[in-house]
Amino acid sequence: MAIKVHGSRISTCVGRVIACLEEKGVEYEVVPVDYVTSEHKQQPFLSLNPFGQVPAFEDGDLTLFESRAITRYVSRKYKDIGTDLLRLNNLAESAIVDAWMEAEAHQFNGPMKVLIYQFFIRPFHHLALEEQEVETNSEKLGKVLEIYEERLSKYKYLAGDYFTLADLHHIPFIFYLFKTPKAYLITSRPHVNAWWNDISSRPSSIKISEGFDKENSFLKGNQ
Amino acid sequence: MAIKVHGSRISTCVGRVIACLEEKGVEYEVVPVDYVTSEHKQQPFLSLNPFGQVPAFEDGDLTLFESRAITRYVSRKYKDIGTDLLRLNNLAESAIVDAWMEAEAHQFNGPMKVLIYQFFIRPFHHLALEEQEVETNSEKLGKVLEIYEERLSKYKYLAGDYFTLADLHHIPFIFYLFKTPKAYLITSRPHVNAWWNDISSRPSSIKISEGFDKENSFLKGNQ
Q: Where are chain B's structural domains?
């Protein structure tokens, strides 16, 4: 039975999981969730993800939620095929991958989520942009990316000279950032920009980017 | 050379790392950081943690940052001694540990951080409580804990019938929550409360709780 990813391809969290499955070359099926009827806030979806969010994930009898836990599972299960995304054969390397994965989750993700909310979710609900929120969080994100710039001046990727989950987890949000007036936060930093050009041109990234553009009603009027 | 944890024992993120080291029975040294002179925002601290936050961690030549990456490293390095915190011998079990670790990071941590900021950091800086922020985030935290209540009605701990990092990562923040008027968010939920009584009475938890109380100037005037 193929792996099932429940959720729409427009979701950045679903994108994170799909990019990982593509890096591993594993077969999977995307099971659409109807947001209009809030299918994800009701049973049977809640038995897959009690927090009522996409994605939910099924591999045989195992059900999982939280995109970053799902990518870890896929990377561990298919450790020896496709891209080595966690460097599990080396304790120190895998620890550094984890540190930069946590940087994504606890430094980058916060301000990035606010920008996505401001540029895509609010307009979708016919709400105006909150300028102060945009500026505060652009500044926060800029400070994080300044640290990335320094790191990427020494290494090709965040965890070292190899592409890992620490890089992959950033990809969906940055695709969306490029559809806002804040893309310069990436392009104005030479090493961050080179890193982005590299990671966004991977076949797995192109796959999720096409998914965003194909289904994405949020993007209308925001480009 | 013993493991070094840089940061004060009053920090919840430092507490997370210490609790993990205590569960493993590993020797370590806590290296104080002088917040008054912003030692953590300058070199040489920034070479240990480029984000200028505590903790930073050293184990021989390896330096790490982000508390949840450090606890993963310690749990992997000392996989076969002390408490089995990641269930790495079973792929499905370890995936479920990861899912609940991510729930802590992406569901529980957000509203909890705001409450800590409101009840401890603002008074420390002689700033008034923002009632609306407290109420909004108490409500958010309550919704998350409602899902925990359901989970803990079926299992003794979040990831199953065994204590793991998924539980441990919650401990420092809940100790602080109990020093605020919002402790009822835990005590009013029977299964969450029983879980808290269990996990907070572990020797590793008592160790970090004593560290909070001993050094904690934030707590004065908040009890």
A: 3-77, 91-219
- Rounded CA-CA distance B84/B161 in Å is 12
Q: Does B64 touch chain A (CB under 8 A)?
A: yes
Instruction: Tell me the HSE value of B187 on the side-chain side, using a 13 A CA sphere.
Output: 9
Taking contacts as CB-CB distances below 8 angstroms, the residues of chain A near B92 are: 62
Q: What is the mean pLDDT of residues B157-175?
A: 98
Strands B3-6 and B28-31: parallel
Looking at residue A35, what is its pLDDT? 86
Superfamily covering domain B3-77: Glutaredoxin (3.40.30.10)
pLDDT of B74 above 60: yes
Which residue, among A72, A100, A101, has the nearest Cα to A88 in the 3D structure? A72
For chain B, the maximum distance between any two Cα atoms, rounded to a whole number of angstroms, is: 50
The chain B residue lying nearest A50, using CA atoms, is: B147
- ipTM of the complex, rounded to two decimals: 0.95
- Count CB-CB contacts under 10 A for residue A49: 23
Task: Compute the residue count for chain B.
Answer: 223
CA distance A106 to chain B (A): 8
Q: Which residues of A touch B73 (CB under 8 A)?
A: 91, 94-95, 98
d(CA A219, CA A196): 21
pLDDT surpasses 50 at A221: no
Please count the other Cβ atoms lying within 10 Å of the Cβ belonging to residue B166: 25
CATH code for residues B91-219:
1.20.1050.10
Positive/negative CA dihedral, A158, A161, A166, A170: positive
Res. A178: pLDDT tops 80 = yes
In angstroms, what is the C-alpha Rg of chain B? 17
